[in-house]
Structure formats: C-alpha cells, structure tokens
Amino acid sequence: MAAVPQVEIDADGTFKYILVRLQRPGGEERRDIVRGTKAAEFHNHIFEKVNPEMEKLGYECKCLGGGKIDHNSKDKKIRVFGLSTGYGKADHSVTAEILKKVYTDYEITWSDDKK
C-alpha cells in the first residue's frame, strides 16, 4: 500500500475532493487517501477515476465522503471544508492530518463550513 501516494490534489485553486479507504479484499490492512481536482464537476467523477486504478492494483475502494479543498501554493495554505451531496461530508480532520504528512511546511486548516 505504501506504493500508492496518500495525496493527489491539484497544485492550486479550489476544487472538490474525496477521502477514499483502500483495503485488500479480505485483508485487515487499510489506508486512507485523498484525491482532488478542478477537472471533476462532481465528486463521483473523482471516484470513477480512482476506483479502476486501485482495482488494477488489487485494492477495494470505499469513498468515505467528500468536500472541497482550497489550495494556495504561493502562501502555503490549504483549507478543507464543505461536503459532497452524493457521498456526504468526509471527516475533514482526517483529511487535514493526511495532507499534513505531505505538505509538511503548510498551514492546513479545516472546518465544517459550506463555503
């Protein structure tokens, strides 16, 4: 599972994201990953791209929810907020902790605000 990047998000802007749990079929090891992009009109578009990629690697995927990410690479700030109409709200505190592992020199905040 270590071969799968924990975070793949756009380098800048405000965009939809999902929190996805990976697990081997019948296995106990799991890993939560964050995926987000401006290219996705809806949260399910992100999942529809991630799921087949992970299935090829032998993982089952479950979307734990979604929201939005505001990524300001110039000021090194990331804000996690909002929700997904289809998947519900992700646990933004979990998303923020995952982002902190990758963006170690960033200020990362989260809230349950819609905007």
Automatic annotation (TrEMBL):
Q: Which SUPFAM superfamilies match?
A: PHP14-like
Lineage, top-rank taxon, reads Eukaryota
Which Gene3D superfamilies does UniProt cross-reference here? Janus/Ocnus
- Read off the InterPro entries from this record: Janus, Janus_sf
Question: Could you tell me which Pfam families the record lists for this protein?
Answer: Ocnus (PF05005)
What protein family does this chain belong to? Belongs to the janus family.
Q: What is this protein called?
A: 14 kDa phosphohistidine phosphatase-like
Tell me the name of the encoding gene: LOC106493878
